[in-house]
Amino acid sequence: MPHTPQQSLQPSAQQPSTAEIAALIDSQIGLEGPLLPILHAIQSAYGHVPQVAAPLIAEALNISRAEVHGVMSFYHDFRDVPAGRHVVRICRAEACQAVGGAALADAALERLGVAWHGTTANGAVTIEPVYCLGLCACGPAAMVDGALLGRVDFDRLDEILTEVGA
Amino acid sequence: MKIYVPRDSAAKALGADAVAVALQVEADKRGLEIELIRTGTRGMIWLEPLVEVDRGTGREGFGPVAPSDVPALLDGTLAGLGPVEEIPFFARQTRLTFARCGLIDPLNLTEYEAHGGLAGLRRALGLSGEAIVDEVKLSGLRGRGGAGFPTGIKWDTVRMAKADRKYIVCNADEGDSGTFADRMIIEGDPFCLIEGMIIAGLGTGATKGFVYLRSEYPDAIAVMGEAIEIAYRAGVLGGDVLGSGSAFDLEVRVGAGAYVCGEETSLLNSLEGKRGVVRAKPPLPALEGAFGHPTVVNNVLSLATVPVIFEKGAAAYADFGMGRSKGTMPIQIAGNVKYGGLFETAFGLPLGDLVNEIAGGTASGRPVKAVQVGGPLGAYFAPSQFDTPFGYEEFDGAGGLIGHAGIVVFDDSADMLKMARFAMEFCAVESCGKCTPCRIGAVRGVETIDRIAQGDAAAVPLLTDLCETMKEGSLCALGGFTPYPVMSALTLFPDDFAATKEAAE
Ligand SMILES: Cc1cc2nc3c(=O)[nH]c(=O)nc-3n(C[C@H](O)[C@H](O)[C@H](O)COP(=O)(O)O)c2cc1C
Ligand code: SF4
Ligand code: FES
After folding, report:
1. β-pairing, B295-299 with B167-172?
2. B-interface mutation test, from A40, A42, A136, A144, most B Cβ less than 10 A away
3. Could you give the ipTM of this predicted complex?
4. pTM to 2 decimal places
5. pLDDT tens readout for residues B400-416
6. Which of B188, B292, B350, B425 is the most exposed place for a label (fewest CB within 10 A)?
7. Domains in chain B and their CATH numbers?
C-alpha cells in the first residue's frame, strides 16, 4: 500500500536536528515525485521548513539547493521562518466578498495591527489571506489553526483572536 | 432511532460537531438508545447543521440545529422541515453524481454498495478498454473542471498511446471561488471518486492514480486517505481489483496553496516536485503527462460521474441536458444568496431561475446586481442576461463560461470596479510567472484600475488594451481569462467606473 502523504514523525524537540529531518525525508522518499510530500512533512513537524533542511533534501533527491529553494518559494504554503503560535486565515475570494468578507478582513487586520502575512508583536497570531476554503455558501469564511469557521462576523472573530492571545 | 449529522466541513464550520456531541451526551443522560451516523452534506448549506432523524418512518430534517436545540429534538417537540428529500430545493434536483452524498456514512463501503456503489465498476470489469471508452463517449460527458473537453476522447488518446506506464490524475485543486462540489463529494462519497478512477484506469490501461488535493481542504484530505485505505483492505484497490486480476493503485497528493496548480500541466509539474509553472502544449498530457508518461487529467466531478454512467448506462445519462451539454451539472450556489449550496440538475436551466428561484435571491434582501459564473476567471453577468441557459455553448455565446459551475451572487452594494481590481490582483498574486502579459500585465491592471478609481477617464481605454494583450499573449487561462471578469464588469457596470464617480459620492 502506498504511503499516506500526511504521515509525519513526531520530533522530540522544537529545535530540529539533522537526524530528525533526515528521518522525515526518509519517510517520503519512496514516493514518486517526493519533494512536495517531504516539504509538507517537515513543515507539519516544525511549522516551517528550517534552513538546515534544504541541503539535506537537495542531497537526498540529488538536486541543487537552489532548486529546493525555487520550489519552496513558488508555493504560498511553505515558510522558511516560523509563524506565530496560531495561524488565522481569512478568505479574501469573491463569494466571501459578496457577504462582507473584505470588511471583516480589514477589521481583523486593524484589530491585530498588522498587514497580511504579519505576526502580532507578542508572537500569538499570524494572519494570512486565503483564496477560498470551499465554504462559499456560508461565508465569510476563516480557518484558525486548521479549524474551519463559517458565517464569521467581527464579534466572533474578535472572540477567537482574544482566545488565542492576540 | 437513527440520527444523521453531517461531517462535511461546511456543516462543521457551522457547528455540526458540537451538535453531534450534544446529541450523544443528551441521549446517554436519558438512557436513550440512538444510532448516530455522520454523513456528507445534502448540500443545503443554509440549513446546516442539518440533522436528520429516522424514527422508523423515514428521515425527517431539522435545521439549522444548535446544541441547545438537542433536548427538544429528542423530545420530539422541535419544529422540523419534514421529510428531507421533500424540501423543494432538494426535490427539484436530479442527483446522479451526488446521489449518495449526504445519504450515507462516506466511509462505509457496505452502505456504498447497498446504494448502487461498485455496480458500475463490476460492469466495466466485463468490458474491453475500447468498450469502456466508447461508453464514456456515448454519455456525452465533458470535463467538469472548466474547459468542457469530451472525457471519452481524452481517455481514448491515453488508451491508444503505447507505454508501459500510464497514470490517472484527479484534479482536486478546486481553487475557484464559489465552488465546493469537489470537496463535498470527496468528503461525502469518496468511494465514488475511487470507483471512477479505477474505471478510467481500466479504460486506458493506467494502473496508478493520484488525487491532487489542495491543502486548503484538510477534511477532504483526511477522508480521501481513509477511503483509500479501506478500499485497499476490501480489495477494491491494489493488485487484483475485485478479484479481476487488474491492478490499480491510488495515492493522495497535497497541493501547497498555488491556484495555478489547478491548471493541468502546472499540476503535473507540482506532482513531480517542481515549481508549478505551466507547460506549453504540445505535448498533450494525454501523451506525455506525469513523469513523462501518458496521463489522464480529469476533474473530480468528471471522474465521480463515471460510476453512475456505467451503472445506469450511457444513454440514460445522455438523456439529461440539452445540445452538447449532456447529463447533469452539480451547480454551486454561493455568495449573497438566501439558499446557498449544491444543486445538481440537468443542463439547460436559465441563470435567472437559478438565482431568483433556486437560490431565492439575495440573503440581504437587496436587489441582485451581478452574478459571477465560473470562478475568478469567469465573467460577471447582469440580470439582463438571466435568460442564458446553463450550458457550455450558451454561456460561451453570452461572453462567459460555466467553468466548474460555481455561481456567486452579489447585491447592489457591490462595487464592480473593486471586483475588477480584485480579479487583476488575484491574477498578479497567482501568476506562475511564465508569460509577461500575465505576470506584468496583471500588476499594470491593478494600477490602471486605481487610476480609473481616481477619476482618470483616459485609463479606461488603457485597461481595454491591456485586457486584449493579456487575452492574446497568455499561455493559460489565468492570464488569458482574467480579462473576462474585468471587461464584463467594465462593460456591464460602466457607472462603477465613471470618472465622475468620486465627485458624485
Ligand atoms: C488557472 C487554472 C486553474 C484551473 N484550476 C482547476 C481546478 O482547480 N480543477 C480542475 O479540475 N481544473 C482546473 N483547471 C482546468 C484544468 O487545466 C483541466 O482542464 C482539467 O483539470 C481537465 O479535467 P476535465 O477535463 O475533467 O475538466 C484550471 C485551469 C486553469 C488555467
Ligand atoms: S498566463 Fe500566467 S499563469 Fe498562465 S502560463 Fe502565463 S504566466 Fe503562467
Ligand atoms: S470564496 Fe470564501 S470560502 Fe470560497
Report:
1. parallel
2. A136
3. 0.96
4. 0.96
5. 999 999 999 999 999 99
6. B292
7. 2-86 (3.40.30.10), 109-318 (3.40.50.11540), 321-411 (3.10.20.600), 416-504 (1.20.1440.230)
